[in-house]
Request: fold
Amino acid sequence: MSSPKAIGSSLTVFLVSDLAQSQANYRDVLGFSVTDWWAERDGLSGLALKLQQAAKPEDVRPNAPAAGSSIGVDVYAYVDNWAQLDSMIKEFKEKGAHIAQEIVTYPDGGPWKEFIVRDPDGYAIAFGGVDGRPGGRRSPLKPHIGGVTLWVRDLDTAVERYAKLLDLNVSEHDRYFGHLHVFKLENGTDLTLDSNGMENVPVNCHGPVLFSVHTDDIYAAREHAESLGFKVVYGIARHPGMSYFNIRDEDGNVITVIQ
Reply:
């Protein structure tokens, strides 16, 4: 029997000459979500880096080119199709990114198409992929839940409550159109809170469970949720190998907490 999955993500460390400049480049030019702990695009399971201030300038050492290559690549990021790839390089160019290599198509391996960007310290990130549906899937839909939307009445209050519930960072860069806030979770899923048109909508006190989250301590999780104003529905249910309970927020959204 295979071991249960233990590693959910990994971070590539870049030692940089000017941390603030590097953070600004990844945030404002390359579209990353940047915190003091990491810089990621599409979640920690997407493209995730750890930017650290180098002690000495000579410690900043991007990879040298591999045999037969003209550009050393420090990270490869894979996209699902060429439309995404074309859109990404267009976005980067509009924001003034340093394109170290324009889009090149290689006949072998798919065919394979890629381009390379370089950051202020010379680290090179290659973005590439094959076109079409990986693995010959018949459905154009991907077997991945990209996001969940919760309808809320008071956006600021809901953002603060869910940030504390799930220990998330709140960034002004994740607020859109004045009524949307998007939390980018570690597994790549987006949790969106939307208050558009919700001022006079009645609270649904009998709605279904919308999604589930996991905990290592079911009792501490219940106490934490209650301290933030969530209502525990029906208490903790215990079954062999699993315990869970439901919580409801002030807007009627129901979430299952599982251990």
